[in-house]
Specification:
Blueprint: H1 2-15, E1 21-23, E2 29-31, E3 42-53, E4 78-86, E5 90-91, H2 96-104, H3 120-138, E6 143-148, E7 181-182, E8 188-189, E9 192-194, E10 200-202, H4 205-211, H5 224-227, H6 240-245, H7 248-251, H8 256-263, E11 267-270, H9 281-303, H10 308-317, H11 328-331
Parallel strand pairs: 3-6, 6-11
Antiparallel strand pairs: 1-2, 3-4, 4-5, 7-8, 9-10
Helix pairs in contact: 3-8, 9-10
The structure holds zinc ion.
């Protein structure tokens, strides 16, 4: 963990001179980096996702003083939000003019609108079809530094990635069709073969190692430490999984997010695990929840017919509530007690 954090800090130290700094009391003064014309400015774009529940943060209930109040156990309805924020424009979204222009484009050229992003596939779609094109529209000629939390879903590999985990020792059985790799002499290593029925099939670990001249007779698929997912290069116990995963083409396999972002010539970095304080979007989520509650109080105040300063007063007075209580109307004399 510490090693990854140090590596992360080193990467950031290298990239920081290419980024603008923000000065002044409200951080509105932008100091652009002084860069040679062939080096692009980097804009930090941070991602995070959060799930908001209808009963989030509700610790108080209201009712008769002599009755024991039962708190809701369920979290209530939820919405899953996956969001990008950047230092330059805040929310990563098109400008109002660009939105109008985007709407005029034919369907297949248009940046799609927000859809439900739940699975890894949806998330990749959000990155490829929205985040990258919107960034490029809003920051022509600049490089995005996309930063993600170090979660399992962000570490997922493409289906054809050079990863040993889902491979079998022999050619048979269900295993993914892998993309081409590299032979020890750097020539192309095709990871599939065509069987006697003319069907393309994946090669197993043994055949791939044999073709590289690395197969040792009676090699088992996984040794004890590999079964426990401990990949230690100094490990004395050798197994087929271990040998193949140490080959340069398998070693250099990047996860899917890094692949698509780097293919678009942007940069992708993962925050160190358990360091959510490094991701400033965390503070944004905390605030947004507070503002969501505030909006709900305004909605209830308006629903009771309170306007202007009366609504602001009610929203402030009942800051700890999700809704403004109906009794507020007595305070303003909108109702008398016989109503
Ligand atoms: Zn092993």
């Amino acid at each position: 963990m510490v090693a990854y954090r140090n590596q992360f800090l080193e990467q950031m130290a290298v990239l920081r001179p290419r980024m603008a700094t923000y000065e002044g009391e409200s951080m509105e003064q932008v100091v652009l980096p002084n860069l040679p014309s062939n080096i692009s400015e980097i804009i930090l774009v941070t991602h995070d996702e959060s799930v908001f529940y209808a009963n989030d943060g509700i610790t108080k209930t209201w009712g008769p003083a002599n009755e024991h109040q039962i708190q809701r156990k369920s979290q209530g309805l939820s919405i899953h939000v996956s969001e990008f924020i950047c230092e330059s424009i805040g929310h990563l979204c098109l400008s109002e003019e660009d939105k109008v222009m985007n709407d005029l484009l034919p369907n297949d050229e248009r940046i799609p609108y927000n859809e439900a992003y739940v699975t890894h596939k949806d998330f990749m779609k959000q990155v490829v079809e929205r985040a990258i094109p919107i960034f490029e529209q809003m920051h022509p000629g600049k490089t995005a530094l996309f930063m993600f939390d170090n979660s399992c879903s962000h570490n997922a590999y493409a289906n054809d990635a050079l990863v040993v985990l889902q491979m079998n020792l022999k050619d048979e059985g269900k295993q993914p069709l892998l993309r081409d790799g590299k032979m020890p002499d750097s020539s192309v290593h095709i990871m599939t073969f065509v069987d006697e029925d003319g069907i393309k099939k994946p090669k197993g670990i043994q055949r791939i190692l044999e073709e590289c001249g690395l197969w040792i007779e009676n090699l088992q698929k996984k040794c004890e430490s590999c079964k426990l997912h401990i990949f230690d290069s100094t490990n004395e116990q050798y197994c087929a999984t271990h040998i193949l995963s140490c080959q340069p083409d398998f070693m250099s396999q990047k996860n899917h997010l890094k692949e698509v972002i780097e293919a678009a010539e942007h940069i992708c970095i993962f925050y160190p695990k358990f360091h959510c304080e490094l991701n400033y979007i965390e503070a944004f989520w905390r605030d947004i929840l507070r503002f969501a509650r505030r909006s709900e109080r305004f909605m209830s105040a308006y629903a009771y017919g309170l306007l202007g300063r009366a609504a602001i007063f009610a929203v402030k007075k009942y800051w700890s509530h999700r809704c403004v209580p109906l009794s507020i109307l007595y305070e303003f004399g909108h109702l008398n007690s016989s109503n």
